[in-house]
Amino acid sequence: METRPPGAVTAADESAPAIEFSEVIKHYGDKTVVDGLSFFVRPGECFGLLGPNGAGKTTTLRMLLGIASPDAGVIRLVDEPIPSRARFARQRVGVVPQFDNLDPDFTVRENLLVFGRYFGMSGHEIEALVPSLLEFARLESKANARVGELSGGMKRRLTLARALVNDPDVLVMDEPTTGLDPQARHLIWERLRSLLARGKTILLTTHFMEEAERLCDRLCVIEEGRKIAEGRPHELVESVIGCDVIEIYGSDPQALRAELAPFVERMEISGETLFCYVDDPQPVHQRVRGRPGVRYLHRPANLEDVFLRLTGREMVD
Ligand SMILES: Nc1ncnc2c1ncn2[C@@H]1O[C@H](COP(=O)(O)OP(=O)(O)OP(=O)(O)O)[C@@H](O)[C@H]1O
Ligand SMILES: [Mg+2]
């Protein structure tokens, strides 16, 4: 019998989680890169893992797939214990790694064929799927191009198509749209939504807050391997920010901060921009409107504000 550590997270609903992480710890040397991380993903859910560079996202996914082993904690994937049953679990999982590992000497079609064979599929079976996979990635015209000749974005799209070869129940994607142009990114979002509509489960990492906001049912923000927030995107925006934002630039931000302080809930300076968090925007509007050289943008709060609030607007590495 498997025992679970105290405080282990379990899904609130009846069905077993598609993915479960309980109190997972991972050290590299004397550095703790994943530090007691717990989360679960229900079947059919899209779950996002957000965090600054080096937060431990890729390490988390690598442990989930059984590529890296945890030092402590419980991991389950499609109801299989990881790493002991990782090979079996992986049969039902599609993976998009952070960095493409396509074979540059093979053509697009050959890459799909070789990958399908890992899953024990016959040549016929895979050939039958190739047209729909190429269509998924909008690579129909590149079937016989060598991967080494593709652009970076095309390779990314091929990696996404390749992850679907085995018709997986769960997709684990590490920054799926990094390096894609806006059209390709929107295409992939549409494709991922259609996969979700078909009942697939998705765990993804992203640095695009718009991506997380559009796709994810729930997300978890991690920093230095620890969970610092979890929830539905709009709930996090409401609970962490909960008011409008006015971005002001083109003026000395320090001087403006002092002037506007009595009229705003909270302020932050990032570079040359002053961020004002306001319940009532009118007093700020009145003071900056028409001021020579000053530009401002009044907008609802978004997930990027949440991320920057939680992890700091300054870059730390
Ligand atoms: N194989 C390894 N050996 C030693 N340290 C590692 C190894 N892999 C990752 N790390 C360290 O673990 C920490 C987390 O790295 P990880 O790649 O998981 O971050 P990440 O959240 O995916 O970052 P990014 O957004 O830049 O992809 C970093 O400090 C990194 O240097
Ligand atoms: Mg990473």
From TrEMBL:
GO terms for cellular component: plasma membrane. Residues 19-249 form the ABC transporter domain. It is found in: Cell membrane. The keyword Metal-binding does not apply. GO terms for molecular function: ATP binding; ATP hydrolysis activity; transmembrane transporter activity. Keywords: ATP-binding, Cell inner membrane, Cell membrane, Membrane, Nodulation, Nucleotide-binding, Translocase, Transport. SMART domains: AAA. NCBIfam families: nodI, PRK13536.1, PRK13537.1. This is ABC transporter.
